[in-house]
Amino acid sequence: MKLLTFLAGVSAVAALNNGVARTPPMGWLSWERFRCNIDCKHDPSNCISENLYMRMADIIAAEGYKEAGYQYVCIDDCWLSKSRDSNGRLQPDPDRFPHGMKALADYVHSKGLKLGIYEDVGAETCARYPGSRGHYQTDAQTFAEWGIDLLKFDACNINPEDFDEGYRQMGFYLNQTGRPILYSCEWAIGEIMHRRQANYTAILEVCNTCRNTVDITDQWKSVLNKVNNYAKDSGNFSKIAGPGGWNDPDELVIGDFSLSPDQERTQMALWSMWAAPLIMSVDLRNMRPESKSLLQNKGVIAVNQDPLGIPGTVRLTMRKVSVWTRPILPKGSLAVVVFNSQSGGAPLNVSVPVHRLINGNALDYLITDTFTGSKLGKLTYHQDLTVRVNPTGVVMVTMTPA
Ligand SMILES: *[C@@H]1O[C@H](CO)[C@@H](O)[C@H](O)[C@H]1NC(C)=O
Ligand SMILES: *[C@@H]1O[C@H](CO)[C@@H](O)[C@H](O)[C@H]1NC(C)=O
Ligand SMILES: *[C@@H]1O[C@H](CO)[C@@H](O)[C@H](O)[C@H]1NC(C)=O
Ligand SMILES: *[C@@H]1O[C@H](CO)[C@@H](O)[C@H](O)[C@H]1NC(C)=O
After folding, report:
1. Which residue ranges have their beta carbon within 6 Å of ligand 2?
2. Which long-range contacts (CB under 8 A, 24 or more apart) does 138-141 make?
3. Which CATH number is associated with domain 26-304?
4. What confidence tens digit (pLDDT) does each residue in 39-50 have?
5. Tell me: the pLDDT tens digits for 349-397?
């Protein structure tokens, strides 16, 4: 008993062991940018259709995103026909997915990528298409037969008392298919929306990702809301994530319409510090070059994908500034983000004593700018890390023992 308690204390992670999501998943999802646009008659190149996912797969494979690590091309709500087929199986809308899901999966796989799909634990999806409740086994089998690699499982149109059973059953039936399918759950946010306490430990025993905040929108205040949620870490969810199971603050809105260049860097940096899924939701056909290169930034992605899989947390707060740290490899190294939440005005000079960032020994550290890879020099344990941070922006460095 004593030993078990001790083990639970040091290795908080009892994550799902289905072989996938050993590092946070990276990919693209249609929801934030393309929503439930089903009007292919008037808006053929932006509607939810096989054409949209094929084009995104083409670009991910051709324009450096795949090499940067983006892998999952994900469908969200509104792909379905309004009724099941005569055998009770789900079917895609026949006009918008005329070749069927198996053909779309084959196409995405031919690009060396994976296909994600969307369903709901309840009787209907959030947009009122057929849900999986009562059909978990059939739907899991259908997805596996189509060659699906990820399931986003939403939490609409169900009694919250039934979340536990519904998410567990779908997890069980996905496992029974024998196909490794990344299981992306909206279970925690479902609980939170019903003013119930989410049990993050229980959720990450069943799911590979745990959405724990409301849907992101393409607005700075929405990004900031997630930063505040992750700073609060209510329920200590950051302690529970690790290889196989990750907390999910929802999609990246980098490259969309609202964020400034500094705010885009803030989103990329903090999502990476949190070991969050990096799921873009943007029209990859129309990208500003700076947003594209930020989404493909090697240094920041390496922090996100660090094999230790330990989420970063707030280490210090100083008025409008928060300092986040994340242990990374090589051993003893840290990723550090200094975030200035103040909007407007001038950049802030911030000095952080190195010893306040470190738990261990009094070492010297080599400092590297994470975004650019430039070496910024060496700091001793007794010196300060001094950085200049733009309003609503970040400075991100990695510190490696010298
Ligand atoms: C099913 O679950 C078992 C036990 O956790 C695991 O070893 C196996 O990899 C899982 N298989 C799939 C396909 O998820
Ligand atoms: C949360 O889930 C874990 C793992 O399933 C369980 O051991 C624990 O008792 C649950 N906590 C609460 C408060 O229900
Ligand atoms: C979270 O952790 C803090 C400090 O370790 C502890 O005091 C608190 O009870 C924990 N809260 C939950 C909900 O586990
Ligand atoms: C902030 O630091 C810069 C150098 O990085 C310096 O030029 C500037 O004077 C400093 N501003 C303040 C208010 O200390």
Report:
1. 199, 201-202, 205
2. 138/88, 138/89, 138/90, 139/89, 139/90, 139/170, 139/173, 140/170, 140/173, 140/174, 140/176, 140/177, 140/181, 141/173, 141/177
3. 3.20.20.70
4. 999 999 999 999
5. 999 999 999 988 889 999 999 999 999 999 999 999 999 999 999 999 9
Helix H segments across 196-277? 200-206, 220-232, 261-273
Which ligand gives the minimal distance to the CA of 8?
2
Q: How many CB atoms lie within 10 A of CB 227?
A: 20
CATH 2.60.40.1180 positions along the chain are 312-401
Q: What is the CA radius of gyration of the chain?
A: 21
End-to-end CA, the chain: 41
pTM: 0.96
Distance, in Å, from the CA atom of 270 to the CA atom of 337, rounded to the nearest integer, reads 7
Six-digit token pair at 378?
């060496």
Q: 312-401 has which fold?
A: Immunoglobulin-like (2.60.40)
| Residue 181 CA to ligand 3 centre (angstroms) | 32
Structure tokens at 50: 């096989």
- What is the number of the ligand 1 atom nearest to the C-alpha of 174? 14
Range list for CATH 3.20.20.70 in the chain = 26-304
Q: Which residues are catalytic?
A: 154, 215
**Residue of 236, 238, 239, 314 best suited for mutating to test ligand 3, as the one with most atoms within 8 Å of CB:** 236
